[in-house]
Amino acid sequence: RELFGEANALGRFVRVADLEGRSVVGAGGEDLGEVAGVTRDGEDARLLIESGDYLGLDETYYFVPLSAVSMADDEVRLDFLTEGDLDRMREDDPEADMLLADDEEISIRG
Predict the structure, then answer these.
(1) Beta bridge partners of 105
(2) pLDDT digits over 73-100, tens only?
(3) Long-range Cβ contact pairs of 3-7 (< 8 A, separation 24 or more)
(4) How far apart are alpha carbons 2 and 60 in whole angstroms?
(5) CA torsion 17→109→47→29, rounded to 10°?
(6) Which of 7, 29, 36, 98 could form a disulfide with 50, with the two C-beta atoms 3.0–4.6 Å apart?
(7) Can you spell out the DSSP letters for 24-78?
(8) What is the DSSP code (8-state) at residue 99?
């Protein structure tokens, strides 16, 4: 099985565990952090991005709608969002019970 599943007209299905820890790249090619998980509120799923220094200090979390996320060459991309855009999506430390289980699948453009 491919890491990111088969693509279809709506995107590709991806297990949450296959996304976690992957680098997230912004519209200008900048490194925005890494995937910390996925949350769902009703029908709306959001990617949780974690950003911080290399020691794991001063971690910041962002919730990004999956509609803004795509996959290209096994890379998680925010094609239309920059680091400045992310600052407006800042969240407090999310609670673990908000996150989807590792074995759940979500659909991502790609």
Answers:
(1) 15
(2) 778 999 888 888 888 888 766 777 788 9
(3) 3/74, 4/71, 4/74, 4/108, 4/110, 5/105, 7/110
(4) 31
(5) 100
(6) 36
(7) EE-TTS-EEEEEEEEEEETTEEEEEEEE--TTS-S-EEEEEEGGG-EEETTEEE-
(8) B
